[in-house]
Amino acid sequence: MNNTHVFSEQSLKILDSVMSVTSYKKGANIFWEGDSADKLFFIVQGRVKLFKSAYDGRDLVLHYFMDGDLFGSISSLGSTEHSFTATAVSDCSIGVIAEKDLEPLLISNSSLSFEFMKWNGMMGQFTQIKLRDLIFYGKTGALASTLLRMIHGFSRTEPDGIHFTISLTNTDLAQLIGSTRETVNRMLQAWKKDGAIDYYHGSIVIKDLDYIKAICHCEDKCPLPICRL
């Protein structure tokens, strides 16, 4: 489920009327941490990651955005500059919505304003829950939580377990939990030894879902729009 489900069809048409579609090549930065927050971005096609660089050079990936997702910040929603960097993970077609075009619509359309409040709150909750998993359950819990998030929208169930349809390397997984590839390797090997996961053509297969849930104390209470990459 994309993160624009909170908007009505009419509101999405209004946003479409003020967006300018721009192409970004794989690896291109859409904005940098510290840039002025004066635009929102709607992914028509492609995949984008939102990350923060640490002082030691490691990246912590907070979000992956897909087709139909909206991301970015504007001062009208409480941000004067971007707190993260956004990079195209694949070739992307992205609709850019300038704050100067959006703000009059928010003032004149109470329904659109309310939907943006819901979207902004949802995105804040999304970030808080990811950071909660990392702070309270450590790297192991954060990795387990990441695998559970990948299930929603990026998996298929086969007789031998849950297979992922998205290709993420151990380095990618490490960036999602603020760790190193070596640490992720060790955790995954321990889970494989316990029979909780296996590999198929180099991709992780979850064999024991309850085992993974227990690591991060998952109670299946998070709404699907929140429990995602």
UniProtKB/TrEMBL annotation:
The entry's keywords: Activator, DNA-binding, Transcription, Transcription regulation
SMART domains in the record: cNMP, HTH_CRP
Domain Cyclic nucleotide-binding: from-to ranges: 13-106
GO cellular component terms, semicolon-separated: cytosol
SUPFAM superfamilies: cAMP-binding domain-like (SSF51206), Winged helix' DNA-binding domain (SSF46785)
A Pfam family this chain is assigned to: cNMP_binding
Xref: CDD domains: CAP_ED
Domain annotation HTH crp-type: ranges: 137-210
Record-level Gene Ontology MF annotations: DNA binding; DNA-binding transcription factor activity
Record InterPro entries: cNMP-bd_dom, cNMP-bd_dom_sf, Env_Response_Regulators, HTH_CRP, RmlC-like_jellyroll, WH-like_DNA-bd_sf, WH_DNA-bd_sf
Protein name: Crp/Fnr family transcriptional regulator
